[in-house]
Amino acid sequence: PASITNSGGTLLIGEHTSGGATSPADGDFHFKGVIDEVRIYKRALSEGEIKALYKGAVIKLRSS
Fold it and tell me: Which residues contact residue 40 at a Cβ distance below 8 angstroms, ignoring those fewer than 6 apart?
C-alpha cells in the first residue's frame, strides 16, 4: 500500500522549487499545460475506483 508522510511543506502543483523559492519560470521542471482538476485522497484508491473516475463515474468514498 502507498503511504504519505506529512512534510509540513506547501503543496505546489505546476511549479518548481529551487532553494526554497518558487518560480514557474525556474528551470525546465514546471508543468507546461493546463491542470483541469485536482483531487487529494487520504488513502490509495483501488484499481476499480481509478477506472470509475477515469470513465467519469461518481464514486462514494467513506470518510475515515
Answer: 11
Domain hosting 3: range is: 1-64
Give the C-alpha separation, 44 to 3, whole Å. 8
C-alpha cell at 34: 493546463
At 19-37, the pLDDT tens digits run 555 555 555 556 677 877 7
Asked if 27 and 15 count as a contact pair (C-beta separation under 8 A), the reply is: no
**What is the spatial distance between Cα 61 and Cα 58, in angstroms, rounded to a whole number?**
10
pLDDT at 10: 75
Residues contacting residue 11 through CB under 8 Å, at least 6 positions apart: 40
Q: What is the reported pTM?
A: 0.46
Structural domains counted in the chain? 1
